[in-house]
Amino acid sequence: MLNNINTESFHFVGEIPVWMGNFGVGWNPSVDFPSRERLYETFRVVPDPDAPMLAVAFLAEVEVPPTPASWKGHLEKALESLTREQGGKLLSPLESADRSPECSAVLVDLTPAYPIARALAETFFPVPVRVAAAWGEIDLRDAEMDPLDAPAFEAAAELLYRVRKEDRLLLVQGESPGLDSVLNAMILLLHRDMREWTERQCEIVRHYRKERRQEGVARELGVSQQAVSGSLVSAGWPALLEAETALTDALSRSSRRP
Question: Is 136 helix (H, G, I), strand (E, B) or coil?
Answer without folding.
Answer: strand
